[in-house]
């Protein structure tokens, strides 16, 4: 089946690949943009073609009004992706993007007659786990402190008043969207979910990430990497390798990657169990990779 190159402002295709084994749609974090996934996309070539979602109100869409609800964002993304995707495809969401990946997958399963072969839910507690809902109401100084706490933004940017005047409204709008999100009771997807966390992330602990298994009727696994909320930055090769290993089993009929037992996440992560001691290797053969 022939794919049509994207010209939709919601979707950025970094490098069209006509012979890729699968496609990966990436959903950015709050305050993030499509370009955050450029490094990951380069490492997935040539096996996986990467499409990255661009939310309104930033970069080339900076003149567009913000979306301040997850449902509004998910509806827009779904409509934009619908004519773009050819099976097999998977979703990768980071932080707020994990919730959007989940909600867009629900829309595909309900309305499109196709579905992702897997969701990679990165750095985010499960949809039914409620976090702080008031971050978007914080004053600028406190919101800036929250951004510094989580990392992921060049410290020089956070010291530039002109840049902050552009960035803070974007962050505030995204925090409003995620902070007011309420997962519908019993909401789940049929595709497998791989939860991915940094082992020192203050936002998404192993216990919170494990709750993702309640939101899928497919397989589930959990992978922990050294690092905090933006663990991807320091583990980019490992993350790319793990994604590629999982999607390598995806055939044109969508089979393979959806079978958690047939295509486990392997490589740079540590399989984990959760308990009173926090994140720990699932077996004595797994070692810390920091």
TrEMBL record:
<keyword id="KW-0378">Hydrolase</keyword>
<protein>
    <submittedName>
        <fullName>Surfactin synthase thioesterase subunit</fullName>
    </submittedName>
</protein>
<comment type="similarity">
    <text>Belongs to the thioesterase family.</text>
</comment>
<dbReference type="InterPro" id="IPR029058">
    <property type="entry name" value="AB_hydrolase_fold"/>
</dbReference>
<dbReference type="GO" id="GO:0008610">
    <property type="term" value="P:lipid biosynthetic process"/>
</dbReference>
<feature type="region of interest" description="Disordered">
    <location>
        <begin position="252"/>
        <end position="290"/>
    </location>
</feature>
<feature type="domain" description="Thioesterase TesA-like">
    <location>
        <begin position="25"/>
        <end position="247"/>
    </location>
</feature>
<dbReference type="GO" id="GO:0016787">
    <property type="term" value="F:hydrolase activity"/>
</dbReference>
<dbReference type="InterPro" id="IPR020802">
    <property type="entry name" value="TesA-like"/>
</dbReference>
<dbReference type="InterPro" id="IPR001031">
    <property type="entry name" value="Thioesterase"/>
</dbReference>
<dbReference type="Pfam" id="PF00975">
    <property type="entry name" value="Thioesterase"/>
</dbReference>
<dbReference type="InterPro" id="IPR012223">
    <property type="entry name" value="TEII"/>
</dbReference>
């Amino acid at each position: 089946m022939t794919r049509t190159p994207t010209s939709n402002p919601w979707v950025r295709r970094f490098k069209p690949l006509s012979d890729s084994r699968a496609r990966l749609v990436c959903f950015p974090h709050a305050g993030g943009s499509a370009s955050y996934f450029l490094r990951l996309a380069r490492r997935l070539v040539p096996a996986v073609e990467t499409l990255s979602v661009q939310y309104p109100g930033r970069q080339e869409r900076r003149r567009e009004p913000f979306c301040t609800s997850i449902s509004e964002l998910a509806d827009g993304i779904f409509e934009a992706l619908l004519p773009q995707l050819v099976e097999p495809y998977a979703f990768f969401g980071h932080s707020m993007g994990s919730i959007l990946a989940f909600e867009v997958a629900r829309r595909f399963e309900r309305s499109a007659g196709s579905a992702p072969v897997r969701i990679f839910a990165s750095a985010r507690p499960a949809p039914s786990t409620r976090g702080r809902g008031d971050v978007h109401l914080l004053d600028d100084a406190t919101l800036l402190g929250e951004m510094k706490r989580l990392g992921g933004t060049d410290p020089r940017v956070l010291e530039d008043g002109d840049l902050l005047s552009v960035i803070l409204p974007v962050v505030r709008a995204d925090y409003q969207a995620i902070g007011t999100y309420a997962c519908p009771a019993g909401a789940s997807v049929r595709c497998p979910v791989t939860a991915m966390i940094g082992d020192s992330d203050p936002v998404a602990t192993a216990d919170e990430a494990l709750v993702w298994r309640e939101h899928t009727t497919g397989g589930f696994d959990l992978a922990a990497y050294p690092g905090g909320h933006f663990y991807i930055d320091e583990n980019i090769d490992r993350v790319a390798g793990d994604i590629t290993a999982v999607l390598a089993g995806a055939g044109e009929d969508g089979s393979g990657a959806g079978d958690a037992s047939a295509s486990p996440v392997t490589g740079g992560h540590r399989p984990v169990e959760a308990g009173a001691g926090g994140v720990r290797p699932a077996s004595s053969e797994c070692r810390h990779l920091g």
